[in-house]
Specification:
Elements lengths: L6 H11 L22 E4 L6 E4 L9 E7 L2 E2 L4 E7 L4 E9 L5 E4 L10 E7 L1 E2 L2 E2 L7 E3 L9 E2 L2 E2 L4 E2 L4 E3 L3 E6 L6 E8 L7 E2 L7 E4 L11 E10 L4 E3 L3 E5 L8 E7 L2 E2 L4 E7 L4 E8 L5 E4 L10 E7 L14 E4 L9 E5 L4 E2 L5 E3 L2 E6 L7 E7 L6 E3 L8 E4 L11 E10 L3 E4 L3 E7 L8 E4 L17
Parallel strand pairs: 3-12, 3-13, 15-22, 23-30
Antiparallel strand pairs: 1-2, 3-4, 3-7, 5-6, 5-8, 8-11, 9-10, 11-21, 14-16, 16-19, 17-18, 17-20, 20-21, 20-22, 23-24, 23-27, 25-26, 25-28, 28-29, 29-38, 31-33, 32-40, 33-36, 34-35, 34-37, 37-38, 37-39, 39-40
C-alpha cells in the first residue's frame, strides 16, 4: 500500500518523461450549471443554453471555474491555488471549497512575477491514502500565467482501470475505460511506492497499453503500482487511482479463473481447454469443467515460452461437450497471458439468427440479433462444408445485417453451403455462430429471378475453428 506520495515530484517526473505532447486548440466551455455564478449571462434562443463569462464583471485578480464529477458539479471539494517558480511549488496561496454546483473562486490573487505561474490543484489523498473512489488521485490545472479574471474548468472523475492486479507475467496488456470528458489523451504509468524508478509510456490516443518487457530499473517479484495519466485539451493533467501489481519471471503463476454464462446465466458442466499458441498452432495444455454457477479455474499455470501466450476455449459438439443448438460453435477468450486479465468471463449463447423464407430472390438480406447489451461486432460469413469456398463481409455491420447481391466467386448453384456470423467482444474474445444450411438454386418458376435462395430443412451445424479475421 502506498503510504506517502509527493505529488509534485510525481508530476514533474511524469512531465519530464512525457515523449509526445498533443496540443489542442482551447475550446470554449459549455456550462449548464444550476444557478450561475456572478458575472455570467444566458445567450441564444429558446431551448439553447450557453453560458459565457462576462469578463468585465469578474473582479480582477480572480481565478475561478467549475469542477465536474460524473457529469455534474462536484460540491464540497477542497482545491488549492499554488505558486510555481519554474523549479518548485513554493507555497499554497489559497484554499477554497467548491459550492453546491461545483463552482469555486480564488479572489484577490497576488500578481505574478516573471518566470512564475499558478496552478489549481485537487488532491484525493491524505498522507498517501486515497479517499474518494469516484475521483482521480489528483489533478493539476494548466499553468496560469495571467491571473486577471481567469476561468479554469476541469473534471475529477476517475479513470476506471481494468481489474488487472496481483502477479503478472510479461508481456501484459493494461486496459482502462475512457472518461466521458473529451478530448483527452492517456499515459500508462508504472512506479514503486518511492517513485524510483518511474516508467511512463508515450502519449496514448487509445485506452490500452501492452508492456512488452520489464522496464529498466524494475525487478521481478517486487511490488509496484500502475495507473493512468490523463491530459485534457487545455493542458491540465491528472492521475487515476492505482492498482497494486508485481511481475512473475518464471515458474508457477497464480490460478487463472473466470465464469462462463449462457445468455447471462451461469453455465455448469461446460468443458474448457487452456491452450498455448504462437498464433499459428494451438496446443491443449489443460482442461477443466465449469462448476454449478459457471465458474472455472486453471491451477499451476506456468509462464509461457517467449513468443507464445495462452487462450481459453469452448468448443461445441466435441467428445467433451455435447451438441447444443442454442450455443456458439466455439468461443476463444483472448488472453495475452494468464494473468494479464486474471479473471476472464464470457458468454457462449448463440447469436439470434433470423430465419429466411424458403425461397428468396436476390438481393438476399441476412440478419441476426445481438447476443446481449454489451457491445459486440458481427461479421457475415458463407462457406462450404470443408471450409472452402469461403466468403466474408469486408467489415462488421452495426445494423446486424448483410445484403448479398450476387453469388460470390467460387460458389455454385445447387450446392449446399453454411452461413453464419463471427462475433467479437473487444478485450474479451471472439467466436462463431452455428452454420445454417443454404442452397442457391436455379428457378423453375419463370415469375422468379434466375437465381434463388432455398433453405434446406436440416438442422444447423457446428463450425470448426478456422482462421478468424480477428486472430
Amino acid at each position: 500500500m502506498l503510504t506517502s506520495m509527493n505529488r509534485r515530484i510525481f508530476s514533474l517526473l511524469a512531465a519530464c518523461l512525457l515523449l509526445t505532447v498533443l496540443v489542442f486548440a482551447a475550446q470554449p466551455a459549455l456550462v449548464t450549471a444550476h444557478g450561475l455564478p456572478s458575472g455570467e449571462q444566458q445567450v441564444g434562443g429558446e431551448g439553447t443554453f450557453v453560458y459565457l463569462p462576462l469578463i468585465s464583471n469578474v473582479p480582477p485578480n480572480t481565478i475561478s471555474g467549475q469542477v465536474i464529477l460524473n457529469g455534474v458539479g462536484a460540491s464540497g471539494y477542497v482545491l488549492t491555488l499554488e505558486l510555481y517558480d519554474g523549479f518548485n511549488f513554493q507555497k499554497v496561496v489559497q484554499k477554497v471549497t467548491t459550492d453546491e454546483n461545483g463552482w469555486y473562486q480564488f479572489a484577490n490573487v497576488p500578481s505574478l512575477q516573471a518566470g512564475k505561474h499558478y496552478e489549481v490543484w485537487y488532491e484525493n489523498s491524505d498522507n498517501g491514502v486515497l479517499l474518494d473512489p469516484c475521483c482521480l488521485w489528483f489533478w493539476e490545472s494548466q499553468p496560469i500565467e495571467n491571473n486577471t479574471a481567469v476561468n479554469i474548468n476541469f473534471d475529477i472523475t476517475n479513470v476506471e482501470l481494468a481489474h488487472i492486479q496481483g502477479n503478472l507475467p510479461i508481456p501484459t496488456t493494461f486496459t482502462w475505460s475512457p472518461r466521458p470528458t473529451g478530448p483527452e489523451n492517456y499515459q500508462f504509468l508504472l512506479f514503486p511506492m518511492n517513485l524510483d524508478p518511474l516508467y511512463a509510456s508515450e502519449m496514448l490516443f487509445y485506452n490500452s497499453y501492452k508492456l512488452l518487457s520489464l522496464p529498466d530499473g524494475f525487478n521481478w517479484g517486487a511490488s509496484y503500482h500502475w495507473a493512468v495519466g490523463v491530459y485534457n485539451d487545455q493542458g491540465g493533467f491528472g492521475i487515476s487511482r492505482y492498482n497494486d501489481i508485481y511481475f512473475a519471471s518464471s515458474g508457477t503463476l497464480d490460478t487463472f479463473s473466470g465464469r462462463v454464462t449462457d445468455s447471462g446465466v451461469g453455465a455448469p458442466g461446460v468443458v474448457l481447454t487452456l491452450e498455448l499458441t504462437d498464433r499459428n498452432h494451438w496446443t491443449v495444455v489443460d482442461r477443466t469443467t465449469t462448476s454449478a454457477d459457471g465458474s472455472y479455474h486453471f491451477d499451476d499455470v506456468t509462464q509461457p515460452p517467449d513468443g507464445q501466450n495462452y487462450e481459453v476455449w469452448y468448443d461445441n459438439a466435441t467428445k467433451y461437450n455435447p451438441f447444443h443448438e442454442e450455443r456458439l460453435s466455439f468461443w476463444g477468450a483472448q488472453t495475452i497471458n494468464p494473468a494479464s486479465t486474471s479473471n476472464i468471463d464470457f458468454d457462449i449463447a448463440e447469436v439470434g439468427i433470423h430465419q429466411l423464407n424458403s425461397q428468396e430472390n436476390f438481393p438476399v438480406l441476412f440478419s441476426w440479433s445481438s447476443r446481449s447489451a454489451a457491445p459486440e461486432e458481427y461479421l457475415f460469413t458463407l462457406r462450404g462444408s470443408t471450409g472452402q469456398p469461403y466468403f466474408e463481409a469486408n467489415f462488421p455491420d452495426p445494423t446486424n445485417t448483410y445484403l448479398l447481391n450476387i453469388l460470390p466467386f467460387g460458389f455454385m448453384l445447387n450446392q449446399q453451403y453454411g452461413w453464419g456470423v463471427w462475433v467479437r467482444r473487444e478485450f474479451v474474445g471472439y467466436g462463431h455462430s452455428l452454420l445454417y444450411p443454404i442452397t442457391f438454386v436455379e428457378s423453375s418458376n419463370d415469375t422468379l429471378a434466375a437465381d434463388e435462395l432455398q433453405l434446406q430443412a436440416n438442422h444447423p451445424q457446428v463450425m470448426r475453428r478456422g482462421q478468424s479475421p480477428w486472430r
